[in-house]
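Hi, here's the filled form for the chain we discussed.

Project: internal
Contact: R.S.
Residues: 320
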Amino acid sequence: MSELVTGEAVALELRPARLPSRALAVLLDLVAAMAVYVAVTIVLVTSTASLDEAAQTALSIATFVLVLVGAPIAVETLSHGRSLGKMACGLRVVRDDGGPIRFRHALVRGLIGVIEILMTFGVVACIASFVSARGRRLGDVFAGTLVVRERVPVARTGFVPPPPPWLAGRFSGLDLSAVPDGLWLAVRQYLTRMQQLDPQVGWSMAERLASDLAECTGAPVPQGVPPAAYLAAVVQERQARESRRAFGSGSASSPDPAGEGPPTVYGAPGAYGPPAADVPPVVAPGAASESSGGRRPVEVPEVEEVPEGDRPGTGFVPPA
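And the returned structure, exactly as it came back:
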C-alpha cells in the first residue's frame, strides 16, 4: 500500500500497480493502437495513390503521430487515466495527490512514453519501474502521476474469531463498565485484522491492548493466556452480556409462562391505564353486586315523583 496525501491533508492508501500488470496494459494498448494504425494506413494508401511520394510520406508520419501518440493522450485525458489496456487490467493513472489527471499529465506521459517505450522497446520503462519504489516510469516521474490498482481483492473483515473453548465463561465476573468505546473499537479492529499483520507486530499490539483492557477492568490478564485469546474472550463476554440485555426473557410485561393467567383484552379498563379495582360499580337501587368482592355498592338515590298538579309553572305553554 502507498500512502498519498491530498491537498486537504487527507492520507489515502492506494496500491500501486507493479511491472507485470502495467506491461500487460501497455501491450494491450499497443495492440489496439497498431490495429487502428494499420487500418488507417490501408485506407490512406488506397485513397492517396495519386499523390507524389513526399505527400504520402508526410501523411504516413502524421498518421503515426496521431494514432500512436495523440490517440493514447486523448483517451487518457477523456477517461481520466483509463486506457483500454488499463481498463482490462483494472488500473488507473492518478496524480500524486490521488486526484484525476488532466491533459498536461497525459501529454507529458505520452511524449516521454514515445522515447522510453516505443523507441527503446520498453527497456527504459522497465528499468525505471524496477528502480522506483512505487513502480513509476520516467513519464510518471516528470508528469507527477502514479498508476494504481482499482480492483483490489477484498479481504474478509468484520469477523471476530472465537476464543479457545477453555476460556468460555471464564470472564463472566469481569467488570466491563469502565472500558471506553474507543478501546473496544481498537480491540475489535485488531481481532478482525490480526491474520494480516506480521506475527511480531501483532503480538506486541495484542499485549498493549490486553494491558489497557486489564487496566480498565481492574483485573490482570491471567497467567498462561495469550493476549489475543484474552481479547477475544473478553469481547465474546461483552457480546453475550449485550445479547442477554437485549433479548432477555425476564420482562415485567411478558405473559404468564404457564399460560394460566387471563388474557389481556386491549381496550379494557386497566389495559393502558390504572387498574379498575378501585372504581366502584354503579348499581341500581336495592340491587346487590355478587362480583363486588365485599365492596359497598354506590346507591343511586330515588327521585320522588311530584303530582302533575303540584308542579310549579315554568312560563311555557305546550303547543296545542
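Let me know if anything looks off before we file it.
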